[in-house]
Amino acid sequence: MELLLGITILSLFFHLSSSAFTPNNSYFLACGSTSTISLTSDSPPRSFVPDSNFLRTSNSLTLSNPNASPNSPTLYATARAFTEPSSYQFTLDIEGTHVLRLHFFPFSAQNHDLSAARFNVSALDRFLLLADFAVPNTSTPIIKEYLLWVDTGELTITFTPNSNSGTSSLAFVNAIEVFTAPTSLLGNSDPLSIAPSGNINQLQRQALETVYRINVGGPKVTPANDTLWRTWVPDDDYLLSKALSQVNSTTRISYSDLDSAEVAPQLIYLTARSMNPGSMVETNPNFNFNITWRFPVTPGYSYFIRMHFCDIVSKTFTALYFDVYIGDQFAQENLHPADYTDNLAEAFFRDFALDVPTSQQVLHVSIGRSLSKTTPQTANAILNGLEIMKVNNSVGSLNGTFNPGSVPSQDNKKNLVSPAVLIPSIVGGVLLIILAITALVFCRRRRAKPVPKPKESPVSWSPYRAAVANFIGVSSKSTDGTAPNASPNFNLGLHIPFAEIKSATNDFDEKLVIGTGGFGKVYGGTLRDGTRVAVKRGMRGSRQGYPEFQTEIIVLSQIRHRHLVSLIGYCDDWSEMILVYEYMEKGPLRKHLYGSDFPCLSWKQRLDVCIGAARGLHYLHTGYSHNIIHRDVKSTNILLGENFLAKVADFGLSRSGPSYGETHVSTGVKGTFGYLDPEYFKVQKLTDKSDVYSFGVLLFEVLCARPVIDQRLTREQVNLAEWALEWQRRGQLEKIIDPRLEGKINVNSLRKFGEIAEKCLAEYGVNRPTMGDVLWNLEYALQLQETELKREPFEDSVNMHSQISVAAVGPSPSTTISIDDEEGDGMTRMSEDAPDITTTINVFSQLVTGEGR
Ligand SMILES: *[C@@H]1O[C@H](CO)[C@@H](O)[C@H](O)[C@H]1NC(C)=O
Ligand SMILES: *[C@@H]1O[C@H](CO)[C@@H](O)[C@H](O)[C@H]1NC(C)=O
Ligand SMILES: *[C@@H]1O[C@H](CO)[C@@H](O)[C@H](O)[C@H]1NC(C)=O
Ligand SMILES: *[C@@H]1O[C@H](CO)[C@@H](O)[C@H](O)[C@H]1NC(C)=O
Ligand SMILES: *[C@@H]1O[C@H](CO)[C@@H](O)[C@H](O)[C@H]1NC(C)=O
Ligand SMILES: *[C@@H]1O[C@H](CO)[C@@H](O)[C@H](O)[C@H]1NC(C)=O
Ligand SMILES: *[C@@H]1O[C@H](CO)[C@@H](O)[C@H](O)[C@H]1NC(C)=O
Ligand SMILES: *[C@@H]1O[C@H](CO)[C@@H](O)[C@H](O)[C@H]1NC(C)=O
């Protein structure tokens, strides 16, 4: 049994890591065609099938292009045309982001001129994708691409001919693609907002339209060279001054993990533009100039901008720093590829969000030299690829102002979640978790050998989401009585034999102790492969803390994030409870704030640390489809690594948050005095807002550099949260800040910071911002510090409020695995809550390639 399970798990692992992306749901329709059209040149190849089974109308026309030459692509030789509102309907049994592509190629046939057609297209009865659309009369097909979030159920696409333009108006379409996007595509980190606007909350839930998809410095990439059948066009038409840049290329790049290959294909990263020194030697000896691309955009919409980078020009890994501007503002200063990758020539991307003002019709994207981090000799900047997506406006439209909610709806209002799909997946999920745990317990001694060093993942990649999706995908298929496969989430490769740990810590040498906590001692050590680690050894033999131990293994082995301390392994041989983490060189944040003689952290460093910690918590709360509450946010649980990179540690108390429909989890109070959410304390209702409260206390601790409870002080000063709030409300926060920061904080930055902390400490959780809001506002505070913007106080405050109201959309749907030990008997029970039943829709993007096949 043991052996069998082991083999199954291993082979599953192997299978998953070697297989290419295949969408769970995919529909490729050749509209109006009576036969299947195979596109064998696509990679992977696709077959477009006749559309009649997906049509929800009895009144439509089938048109054939009389001029179609036998050797032209047959996808565009036929069309489906409509004279009245008509829909296509697709059944999708997996929730998530879906790609929708619509192909249009007008021709004249049977007395109908398709180039005269004018129509609206809407999706899910909720998003207007195209308004009063007239297909340009070109010789190449027009392809529009969208990304839509679809909950399990039906995706309806409605075509509505416009009657006001004449009696014989038509709507038509030549081909439709609908398929599930890989979970890594949109990831789960929200884009960095370009202040003071540009907040896209819950990016995945927005309707996005791909407007530009550019292979910078490279050739056109076609569906034959992209596993998601995307088209990437060269940048020449958008580049402002060609002479300022040069094209660099390479033959090999790497990805930080397997899923990343789906985000953009290799071909995109193999070429880049960099700064051309030759062009400027005489006129600009400081080498201070920008490479700029210019894109026409629709005023008044928000845009999501993804920039792809891969350092193929530097000689050394850490050499490159450059500045990125979007919309003529700083998007990121001193962008440093080494912050996001482990090697030269490793791909990564950065996401940004920007509101285009109503007065502006073009968007500039620029890269240029970092003035603070480089000399004219070392200056350079790169860009490999660029995607620009339009975000639906507040009425759900991507084109026009019409509210598609009033689209005449078809008789297709079906129950969106079919219980037939849901129940097996729940049962399967529970079964699977139980099995995985069993496997974890039974196999732990078998898998002792190589200790894989977990890779740090760049902020916006989400390698582990795919694993979760697998898990759900597999589970729904494993209810037919066959042996279910265990999930790769419970990484059995993490077990480390006791002997190895003993040797790494020099037989638990007291000299190597770097910390002591309720759980036991923490030792610094070095594994045989040279990896520096922190070894946390629980008090031996006692069952106390065993549930926390298990929680930490389960939680940490599933999630990886740049701002969460990674678990490298664990050991439970001989009833030991040992957890092995990545080594955090600079130790806990608290030590750098007070009570030691470490050098004083600058304000910028402190903001960076808070931002990092906020990112980690934001990820815990919203990422990875579990929402996890940390429950013990404090300055000793924020650890600092090299370059003061902050990571959140200690998940021993964490547990999954409420799932949709529940507002809280009730539980015995745990946490640390001084940081405890009073609401949680009073009513024992745990929500992620309890972490927000603790984080607010932490913010004041960072600002004032004193313990959160200090009994030596006068009564009103003992509790930092109360004391600081008092001064914040008086508008005199600067009176109690760390004296070493006096005169070094920009007043606007301080005001913003105080506001954020105050909001976090709101008495009731509902009034507190989400970690996402906190994060954006901290980033803004950092920008205020760095750029010393002169703003009216009024303006910043409005910004804060509007972000909070946008955020109040509600918990994102999730499949929550909760680990229950209410009885306190050390037994871990698992349950899986049902996925969110509400239908929230996310529209993706629209792509104008002006070209097809
Ligand atoms: C589109 O082009 C075709 C031929 O190029 C022409 O016959 C037709 O009239 C054009 N339609 C419109 C609406 O301009
Ligand atoms: C793109 O795909 C085609 C067909 O698979 C292949 O022949 C071609 O070499 C690829 N192009 C590049 C640049 O890899
Ligand atoms: C980048 O390209 C330019 C010319 O296109 C070349 O002179 C330079 O050496 C290249 N740099 C690298 C690192 O390949
Ligand atoms: C680069 O572009 C940004 C944004 O448009 C601008 O503020 C900056 O002055 C430019 N730098 C140079 C050297 O032109
Ligand atoms: C896009 O539409 C959704 C659903 O209608 C809405 O919740 C969201 O706020 C819209 N996005 C923006 C940026 O207004
Ligand atoms: C709607 O789309 C058309 C073409 O697809 C474009 O020309 C027009 O500017 C768009 N209008 C808005 C308000 O987005
Ligand atoms: C199509 O969209 C336009 C622009 O929003 C709207 O004015 C018009 O009423 C819509 N037409 C139909 C038939 O729904
Ligand atoms: C679909 O299922 C496969 C395994 O069958 C999995 O690898 C993939 O991540 C799933 N995709 C989504 C979007 O759930």
Automatic annotation (TrEMBL):
Residue spans crossing the bilayer: 421-443
Q: Which UniProt keywords apply?
A: ATP-binding, Glycoprotein, Kinase, Membrane, Nucleotide-binding, Serine/threonine-protein kinase, Signal, Transferase, Transmembrane, Transmembrane helix
Q: In terms of one coarse class, where is the protein primarily found?
A: membrane
* Database matches in Pfam families: Malectin_like (PF12819), PK_Tyr_Ser-Thr (PF07714)
Give GO MF terms, alphabetically. Answer: ATP binding; protein serine/threonine kinase activity
What residues does the Protein kinase domain cover? 508-781
Q: Which residues bind ATP?
A: 536
Query: Where found in the cell?
Result: Membrane
Q: Which Gene3D superfamilies match?
A: Galactose-binding lectin (2.60.120.430), Phosphorylase Kinase, domain 1 (3.30.200.20), Transferase(Phosphotransferase) domain 1 (1.10.510.10)
Q: Which residues form a coiled coil?
A: none
Task: Give membrane topology per the record.
Answer: Single-pass membrane protein
Where would one find the signal peptide in this protein?
1-19
Write down any Gene Ontology CC term: membrane
Name of this protein: Probable receptor-like protein kinase At5g59700
Native species: Phoenix dactylifera
Q: Which gene encodes it?
A: LOC103717361
